[in-house]
Amino acid sequence: MVSPPHEAMHRIFQHDPGLFSRVSRYLGVDIPRPVTAAALPTDLTEASPVERRVDTLLRFDTAEQGAFLLAIEAQGKRDAHKPASWAYYVAYLWTKYRLPTALLVVCQDHATARWAQTAVNSGPRGLPTLTLRPMVAGPHNLPVITDPDEARADLVLASLAAITHAAEPEVDAILKALSTALRDAPEDIASPLIEFTAQGLGKNPAQHLWRNLVAVDLSFYKSYLAEEIRDEGRAQRAAEDVLLVLEQRGLDVPEHVRSRVEDCQDPDVLRHWLTRAVTVPRAEDIFGDA
């Protein structure tokens, strides 16, 4: 199953194809800013039962280098089978489109990044034949953007910096700078970056900080994440009301009752429990027969 961080690490380049030219300087290459950029179909399946699908595929047209393709792969961990798949992607795309083809692998941890950037030969020892040497972007080479002004200068890069540093100690400072910078951005620019960042953080502890920053600093945006956080806030307040009524009536509130009320996220259910809390003889009775 594809994880949210996996999707965020490559889809952010679909959102802003020009991001690659800005990222390239951190990878030791200098890719000119594209004159045009377009997303291409990612399905590389041929007439065989094996499906091969690259994460993101972009075509760039530049004044200096002409046209070329960029295949982008998000990689969350080492996978011994991946280099062969990546070599297939590059060879297939080169053959199909007759255009120079580059491969960028985006990682979120140093160990995976070191593994991904290791050159792999397709042939036996002494006969390399085809050598795969992808560019790798990750916490080892992307910038740590902790200045709101720097984040404001390139919001998409700042979001990618947060995603690739999701498990690093610096991520808290990156997220605070990004949330501050997004306050000044139009909603149509800020909303997708709020979501990309949330997806990219995955289950890392920094996700909780980002949700809090969105709830406080960016609460005026109507993004999916912001709405979800506001709904959670309303449910939390409703749960507190239920427990407050029970306690004010002098009823004993067992831990299992408290936990069930606090875990409920359904406003209608909480409203029903609140109504029952006014008259029930015991705290457990707010749940009724259910």
Features:
290 residues; two-stranded antiparallel ribbon; 48% helix; alpha/beta; Trna Endonuclease, Chain: A, domain 1; five-stranded mixed sheet
Descriptive report:
By secondary structure, this protein is α/β, with parallel strands linked by helices. It has three domains: 4-137, 3-Layer(aba) Sandwich (Trna Endonuclease, Chain: A, domain 1); 148-222, no CATH class; 230-287. The chain is 48% helix and 11% strand. It is built from twelve helices and seven strands. The protein has helices at residues 4-15, 19-23, 82-97, 110-116, 148-153, 155-164, 171-182, 187-201, 206-217, 224-248, 255-263, 267-277, and strands at 36-39, 56-62, 66-74, 101-106, 120-121, 131-132, 135-137. Strands 1-2-3-4-7 form a five-stranded mixed beta sheet. Helix 1 packs antiparallel against helix 8 (187-201), helix 10 (224-248) runs antiparallel to helix 11 (255-263) and helix 10 runs parallel beside helix 12 (267-277). The longest helix has 25 residues, at 224-248. The chain is elongated, with a radius of gyration of 25 Å. The model has no long low-confidence stretch (mean pLDDT 86). This is Transposase (putative) YhgA-like domain-containing protein. It comes from Streptomyces cellulosae.
Largest pleated sheet: 5 strands, mixed
Radius of gyration: 25 Å
Instruction: Give the tally of structural domains.
Output: 3
What average pLDDT do the residues reach?
86
Please tally the β strands and state the result.
7
CATH topology of the largest domain: Trna Endonuclease, Chain: A, domain 1
Order of helices and strands: HHEEEHEHEEEHHHHHHHH
The dominant shape is: elongated
- Number of H- or I-type helical stretches: 12
Strand order of the largest sheet: 1-2-3-4-7
| Helix coverage percent | 40-55%
Structural class: alpha/beta
Low-pLDDT runs: none
Query: Approximately what portion of the residues adopt beta-strand conformation?
Result: 5-15%
- What's the end-to-end separation, in Å? 34 Å
CATH architecture of the largest domain: 3-Layer(aba) Sandwich
What's the CATH class of the largest domain, please?
Alpha Beta
